Amino acid sequence: MENDKMGDISNECSDAFDNILESRRSIRFFKDEIPPKEYVEDIIRAGLFAPYAAQAVDENEYFRKFIVISKNSEKMKEVAEIAKNKVKIMSEQLNAQMEENPYLKEKAKSFSKRLELFAEKGVLGIGTAPYYIVVAEKKGVPPVEQQSLAHCLQNMWLKAASLDLGFHLVSATAQMEENKDFCEILGINPGEWGLNGCAVGYPEEIPPETSRPAVSEVTMWID
Predict the structure, then answer these.
(1) For residues 165 and 46, what is the distance between their CA atoms, to the nearest angstrom?
(2) Which positions of the chain have pLDDT values less than 70?
(3) Does some domain include residue 220?
(4) Coiled-coil ranges per the record (predicted)?
(5) CATH number of the domain that residue 141 is part of
(6) pLDDT at residue number 167
């Protein structure tokens, strides 16, 4: 009987996890309603439990930091402007490279237009949701901080989905790790931390589910 009960609990947990995975969406538009602080802390806690490169961070317990910036704060206005200016520079550099590289000119069209839009209107997710969360991972050897940040943000994304909160990955944050003004606001030294970030809030609308191929279509077994 005990084994049967444990099996039922295991199946329930597995089904619940599948539901969270399938409900995960990238949200572009958020309501003004502010999520409870406890929810944001739960999301951060999920990020703390993500895998990390133990060899790179050695025995440093505080290798990962979370900086939560509220939408209507003065600091949000500052980081939004800093990020916008950075993306403008990136857009100009990419366009110059595209003029010299026919292959890049063809392949980077969509990305170039996206950068131009952000350079004009601001980076999506910074100031467009109740919270912008920057995650900082201490750099080390081997240099795998971005891989660790990816694990961290995935955990945070899934936890947000479990709380019916919207989540948007603000990948432009990764380009700000050397920016003195940006890092000063975060309270970290430029270049010492890998960065990435996300926007969190209640979704204005839920995008439709994206289709995925069947497992059998993308799996090869080697016995």
Answers:
(1) 14
(2) 1-9
(3) no
(4) none
(5) 3.40.109.10
(6) 98
Tokens for 179, please give them: 């920016």
Q: How many domains does the chain have?
A: 1
Pick the closest to residue 94 from 76, 79, 77, 115 (CA basis). Answer: 115
The 3 state secondary structure assigned to 48-66 is HCCCCCHHHHCCCCCCEEE
The neighbour count for residue 56, using CB atoms within 10 Å, is: 19
**Alpha-carbon torsion (121, 180, 131, 212), positive or negative:** positive
The residues that bridge with 200 in the sheet, in sequence order, are: 131, 167
Judged by DSSP in three states, 87 sits in: helix
Tell me whether residue 187 is in a domain. yes
Q: How far is CA 41 from the centre of its chain?
A: 16
203 prior amide bond cis, ω within 30: no
Query: How many helices (H) does the chain have, and how many strands (E)?
Result: 9, 4
Q: Which of helix, strand or coil describes residue 198?
A: strand
Cα–Cα distance for residue pair 172/119, rounded to 1 Å: 11
Q: Rounded distance, CA 85 to CA 64, Å?
A: 26
Single-letter residue type at 12: E
d(CA 30, CA 131): 10
Q: What is the pLDDT of residue 9?
A: 65
Q: Which domain holds residue 34?
A: 28-201
Q: Is residue 96 part of a domain?
A: yes
DSSP helix, strand, coil percent of the chain (3-state; round to 5) = 55, 15, 35
- 135, 64 in Cβ contact below 8 A? yes
For residue 41 the two structure tokens come to 């802390």
Position 15, amino acid: D
